Amino acid sequence: MPDTISACCPECDAAVTFAKSPLNGEVVRCTDCGVELEVTNTDPITMELAPEVEEDWGE
Amino acid sequence: MRIAMLYTRLRVEERMLLDAFEQLGPSVTVEPVDVRTESFDLADPGKWVGFDLALDRCVSLRASATVTRVLERFGVRCINRASTIEIASDKLRTSLALEAEGIPTPRTIIAVEQTGALEAVERIGYPAVLKPTVGSWGRLLARVNDRDAAEAVIEHRATLGSSQQQVHYIQEHIDKRGADYRVFVVGGSAVAAIARRSEHWVTNTARGAKAEGTEVTGELGVLSQRASQAVGGDVVAVDLFESPEGNPDGRRMLVNEVNHSMEFRNSVETTGVNIPLLVAQHAISIAESCRSTQGVGT
Description:
The structure holds 2 protein chains of 2 kinds.
Chain A: E1 5-8, E2 15-18, E3 27-29, E4 36-42, E5 45-49
Antiparallel strand pairs in A: 1-2, 3-4, 4-5
Chain B: E1 2-7, H1 12-23, E2 29-34, E3 53-56, H2 61-73, E4 77-79, H3 82-88, H4 91-100, E5 108-111, H5 114-124, E6 128-131, E7 142-144, H6 147-160, E8 168-172, E9 179-186, E10 189-197, E11 210-214, H7 218-230, E12 235-243, E13 252-259, H8 267-271, H9 275-294
Parallel strand pairs in B: 1-2, 1-3, 3-4
Antiparallel strand pairs in B: 5-8, 6-7, 6-8, 9-10, 9-12, 10-11, 12-13
Helix pairs in contact in B: 1-9, 2-3, 5-6
């Protein structure tokens, strides 16, 4: 396993790094362009723009 | 011991919880389960019978309420319980649960049609606050300062909203002087609190309010614990206002709402309390008692 776990931001192509192996559905923010991303696959890691808030989301 | 952590998006909070369980040692296996990829055969619990407990962390209320209801039918103890989620996610049901226990809340009037809603706003007086009964993060709250605004908001809800929006939940406006409180209650104990301040009348951190840690003392702690008990909560966050009226010796606390799937990413540092660790410890404690009740060997 490489020392750094990372994947490319689909918005700006910057490297997004993970402290631990990500899980499907994990939400991260690209530190370069600031968009919120959701992990859609873990091997290899792929990400998509996270969906907007839906009506039944909350605490 | 096996605990399922149910989620629909794995946010910072869920990652903090996984780290907390890991910190508590190898005797507990926590399996994150993305419920979006699951289906549930009501006649065959399948893998779910192997779990001692399910910790619900779904950001979707629909997913939380549905999955916990099914898992409880399968005999899996859930945190929070399905009944708690159903009460806490509905402002009307929360108000009724708090009122039933004599817990002070803002004055609230319910109406199911426009005519009754407008009459209710006039009775409450201006400014009044109109809220959807189901919703979070301060969405679709409206403060109306006069009859013209009240008529407009009520008509918009009736015309554009879902049938749920036709339930008019109307509250007195509390002058909270720019701040309100959130108390984190774990296993019945008020463990941490933050004060939320904003120049906007909605003091929700999802709407930009700033949070700072505060002591859980006196009425703040007692009312929060009573509110948690009123909804049957295991792990909840209770929101309170300080009302300038109604108490001869000064301001008094009112419970505004109870949150069943609390966020805490910004509250650990501000309060100095390791909230996810306390949640994990509580979950393990409940799971252990479930195992001993069911006679499962460790």
